[in-house]
């Protein structure tokens, strides 16, 4: 509570202020009226003596009745200044300034903001006696409402000015009463013109004359009659009964969408949206869709797009040509599988990689397809559609089957060719011991005939019989040796030939069997200067297919004789094998021939690939090796990288 100042009696005390002369009846009514007012009232005479203060004044300045010094207005002002009512500063200077303004009634109306934030509207009126009457009205709520309204109007103006649209407000007579700058730009008028509140027909006429707005297609030809053109447009877009939207081209090349919203009082709100970019984007999208549709229709594959429920939403021309106008292929096991895969794509959000499938086409003919499925997702990653692409591989599968049959026939022919070479080689090998045996038997027969003649003529001598015994012993030994040799060759031939012909599985000693294979190849090797060396320990027992393995070794060695060494050129082939790791045989083939050029190393196992096709090579030797090693032998064959001269292969296959 501020420091108190001694109270001074008022010239005209108010009811409840204390003792004093009794007022007249008329004065009582006036005092009662002042007390009922919402305004604070103060009457000051020419000598600055306060004559009247009503109760509302005490309430406004938050002091008890009679507390404000009442006799001297100057003291009241100084008191209020000392309380900080007028803000910081020298109280005396502040009081002097307020007294001067009060005496001059300048300004006659102003607002005083109290320290507590309340706003008082102060009105000063001079009296005829040189004094003045001052009224104080609390306008805090009104000012707050006005400030809020001004803020809202400012925000509304900012909103309108920052809208991407133009917007105007028309009154019931279609005069422009509000607008934003975008509207002025689209309407093609200046701020000065629109501030004159022109009517809608006037502005339409101006736009037609300036070429900013034209008549729609199908409109009559009015020539240069602007009034007729204006009336024509106003009849159609001037006063729609309900919300109305139309688009129009601007003279500057833009396209404007106009939305007209009628108001209950007969006025209108019109918005103008520049849709040029949207139309350009729509046109680009339309063209892109046409291009995309054309590309999809040109793809020789089935393409369909389904929604999450499995309903087909889009198909390409190849799909429609295959299944006709039906939305989906006929039901069947393949369709059930497709439905399951569609559900998998929806549930997992992942595509299904290419897989082979078999299903009937629209005519019921079975076809082979290479199919993949891909999800289409929204911004949240949820699957919305499933895209299915199926390539018709029926012809390819048929060709593959024919190729497999051809390869099987060629492999069989190659086996028979190898067998024929084996027969020819063994026949050549067996011919020598049989020839020696025949010669020995013939010589022995001649000796038997000679000794018999001597015996019958009784001319035999001890020396003749001894000579006969020597010849008989030597011939018998020679016959036995060559017959055993022929028997061994025939046995090896029978074993290798039987293995290659039957393809049966059996256990065999790897080192011994390689010897037998090389024995069958000896006739071919004798015509060259190439030697074959072995580094294979005995006791490596393999439970497999010896005939197939023999063909692999034969093809590798014959391939080397054809490609690695020129005719008459010396060379060396080394075959080595070890069991590593346990349960697996790792066999190495190495020669010191020409080697394989780098540009064809990746193709040597391809069927029918050869660099000497005109010299009798079929291109199947290494291809057959690869098929046997990966299929029959359940292993592998690979070309090893190596520097310098020669070629190296590594063969891996299980022991059993």
UniProtKB/TrEMBL annotation:
Task: Give start and end of each PAC domain.
Answer: 353-405
Which residue ranges does the record assign to the Histidine kinase domain?
425-656
Region Disordered: list its residue ranges.
1-26
The record's annotation in Pfam families points to: HATPase_c (PF02518), PAS_4 (PF08448), PAS_7 (PF12860)
Please give the catalytic activity noted in the UniProt record.
ATP + protein L-histidine = ADP + protein N-phospho-L-histidine
The record's section on InterPro entries has:
HATPase_C_sf, HATPase_dom, His_kinase_dom, HisK_dim/P_dom, HisK_dim/P_sf, PAS, PAS-assoc_C, PAS-like_dom_sf
Name of the featured protein: histidine kinase
Q: What organism is listed for this UniProt entry?
A: Azospirillum oryzae
